[in-house]
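Re: beginner question about structure tokens

> Can someone show what the tokenized structure looks like for a real chain? I only ever see the sequence side.

Sure, here's an example I had lying around. Input first:
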Amino acid sequence: MRTLSHLFENNRRWSEEIRRRDPHFFETLSKQQAPEYLWIGCSDSRVPANEIVGLLPGELFVHRNVANVVVPTDMNCMSVMQFAVDVLKVKHIMVVGHYGCGGIRAVVEHRQMGLIDHWLRHVKDVYYLHQQELEAIENFEARCDRLCELNVIHQVERVCQSAIVQNAWARGQELSVHGWMYSLKDGLLRDMDVCRTSLADVNPAYRTVQVEALNPQRPDAV
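And the corresponding structure tokens:
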């Protein structure tokens, strides 16, 4: 007897429904991958990337980890970003956090959880930078929500600080980086208004390409 047979049955029904609506969908999908979007989100099972934004398979490239963190030494995340930007030529990167994130809550509670504590250290850094603001929020849930938002804002900056994104901008590639929040309570997205679109949006201390790339029309530009 096949293990998890109900999941295989669900898969069969899903495949049949897709083919009923578009008989050539899988044939076309198997021949190409040309998404315009990279979603960097949380691993939380309640946050299904494609469904949230109403996109089909092949339309959204996805990387997920606990608390939607972007770490320069995480070769998984960096490899996904590099493939998405350099090979797939995505036009948008969305860093998407969500209210009610368990990883964020553990940081606010100063709770020990084991191996994941090392990963959440990156979120603790965000907490430390905004400690005064966060600890002035008396309501615990509101404090967690605010750290979720601040974490997204910081991860957007980390995406922009990467050589992958900066090199794309330097060569004139169209690329925008966005920070969004998702609510488990109503299923709606919220734009955090931290869109970044060029090298000019990167703090000079974090630029990894020549400043001249900001203005390639200059005669002395290299």
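Each token stands for a local structural state, so reading them left to right follows the chain. Confidence is low (pLDDT under 50) at residues 218-222.
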